[in-house]
Amino acid sequence: QVLAGSVAMQQPELSGDFARLMEWADAARRMKVRANAETPADARAARSFGAEGIGLCRTEHMFFDEDRIIAMREMILAGDETGRRAALAKLLPMQRADFVELFEIMAGLPVTIRLLDPPLHEFLPKKDSEVADVAKAIGVEPERLRERMLALHEFNPMLGHRGCRLAISYPEIAEMQARAIFEAAIDVAARTGAEIAPEIMVPLVMNKAELDRVRDLIVKAAREVEKEAGTLPDYSVGTMIELPRAALEAGRIAETAEFFSFGTNDLTQTTFGLSRDDAASFLATYTATGILAQDPFVTIDQEGVGELVRIAAERGRKARPDIKLGICGEHGGDPASVAFCEEVGLDYVSCSPFRVPIARLAAAQASLRRGAEDGGDGTA
């Protein structure tokens, strides 16, 4: 059947027997289920599917919109800190508006916001044919843009100038993002009465010194906002554990970090030495021949990656007994991986919005299974 024009669509919703099943699951599970979301549409979808907050807001996605990418590129091409701060001043109200909307939608539920993570060259044109138009839009000579593109080029960007390394090299970026978070939280709390307590996450940390340096930038921004506004929201600063060294150093890192979120996408890459973008060409052979039991990017590898998660959780809790522990890789929506998270005792899993119902059910099954194994009857 061929239909002319657009067809009226309906948003999926949890209702009837399925909604009742989800109620039973929620009563049985111990772990919270959050969603990875940075757009209002994703945040609303997450809420409709029962997400209990945002476990990962990837702020870099907010800078690719047409009205923002120019200011972002101006910041990247600026020759000094003054120029970068001038460009960031244009981005501040946009970033603040993004967070206002997310805080409003989540209505007091936890929101974990990751500071800028990808290398800066990702915001520049990829093809030489685009250079002239981009240069004209931001008001620079094409040759200047080409020089900057060349200077930022990396042979292995996944392990390059990204994550907290950007905040250390360009502290004004982290300061702007922290200010936007605090100002948005104050705004929403004042207008709605909701208690907004943002969780600010520093990516790709490898040791305590890195986290300390970035946390100081966040605290500096917090003090400036408090001085101007006369108030400040409760907030916490934590980090993603996505490097093996960070997992091994978790005890020291937890002296500063108030929460860990296991970024198992990158932790799997850095543990296996595999590129998630390139490994598909041979992983099928590895699983078919039994070299690997399953694709480690689909289901968490418990012997390697999982062992690092265990180590980090144990050492983190020893240093800070009340540390909050979660997972924000796509493993958070995989039932077998959710069961592992329950076994380790993580506080929450976070996954894409449309996998939230799967995670809620898997968390309940894992909780019941663990209860039965611990000597209970396995019922809620």
Features:
380 residues; alpha/beta; TIM Barrel; eight-stranded parallel beta barrel; 16 helices; globular
Could you describe the 3D structure shown?
This protein has one domain (29-119, 154-373): Phosphoenolpyruvate-binding domains (TIM Barrel, Alpha-Beta Barrel). It is built from 16 helices and 8 strands. The chain has helices spanning 16-28, 40-48, 66-77, 81-106, 131-138, 142-152, 164-169, 171-192, 208-229, 244-248, 250-253, 264-272, 280-288, 305-319, 335-344, 356-373; strands at 32-36, 54-58, 111-114, 199-202, 236-241, 259-262, 324-327, 348-351. Strand 7 (324-327), helix 15 (335-344) and strand 8 form a beta-alpha-beta unit. The chain is globular and about 70 Å long. The model has no long low-confidence stretch (mean pLDDT 94).
Main structural class: alpha/beta
Q: How many distinct helices?
A: 16
Per CATH, the architecture is: Alpha-Beta Barrel
What percent strand?
5-15%
Instruction: Round the mean pLDDT to the nearest integer and report it.
Output: 94
What is the total number of structural domains? Answer: 1
Helix-strand sequence: HEHEHHEHHHHEHEHHEHHHEHEH
Largest sheet properties: 8 strands, parallel, barrel
User: Span between N and C termini?
Assistant: 47 Å
Q: What is the number of E strands?
A: 8
CATH class bucket:
Alpha Beta
The strand line-up of the biggest sheet is: 1-2-3-4-5-6-7-8
Question: Low-confidence parts lasting 5 or more residues at pLDDT below 50?
Answer: none
CATH topology: TIM Barrel
- The whole-angstrom Rg is 22 Å
